[in-house]
Specification:
6 helices; two-stranded parallel ribbon; about 35% helix; two-stranded antiparallel sheet; alpha+beta
Length: about 160
């Protein structure tokens, strides 16, 4: 598990199961976000790494909105196996369960430009409010990204609003 934009170290939390460990750690990030008022995003890294995280574990989480599907590591079984579902299928089934339970949908993969666009929506109020539009995203995941933004309101500097992201 990782977290984006934390301000102080969060020591790993234990638990009685994989799901409980993940939830306890997600809660630590969400608590720090609430205490500081600073946007922070917990996210699960490649749930099929050694098949340690099950679909039921992921569905049980509260406050988890992102998970990474592919990072190129050979132990990340993105395609699944004869006895385990792929991460893409896991994502679909998580979102079906989330829809049924009126939970916000989970966003897939840090390698996807959509992931970065959703992060900008969460972090830049002008994008969330529609005052700034993301026109294009080009990424080299783990290396760099370029985001083209524009605003039709002359009073808003779209690039300035996004600097530091």
């Amino acid at each position: 598990m990782n977290a984006t934009n934390i301000k102080k170290k969060i020591d790993p939390m234990g638990g009685g199961s994989v799901a409980e460990v993940m939830q306890n750690n997600i809660n630590q990030v969400l608590n720090q976000r609430k205490e500081t008022g600073i946007p922070m995003i917990p996210h699960i890294n490649h749930p099929n790494f050694g098949y340690a995280i099950t679909l039921d574990d992921m569905i049980s989480l509260n406050g988890e909105r992102f998970f990474e599907v592919y990072n190129g590591h050979p132990a990340v079984h993105n395609m699944g196996s004869s006895s385990s579902i792929s991460t893409e299928e896991m994502w679909d089934l998580i979102n079906i369960a989330y829809l049924k339970n009126n939970k916000p949908l989970i966003i897939l993969s840090r390698t996807s430009p959509l992931f970065l666009e959703r992060l900008f929506e969460l972090e830049v109020p002008e994008i969330y409010d529609g005052l700034i539009t993301v026109k294009n995203i080009v990424r080299e995941p783990g290396e760099r990204a370029k985001v083209a933004v524009e605003s039709y309101d002359d009073r808003i500097d779209p690039v300035g609003a996004c600097v530091g992201m």
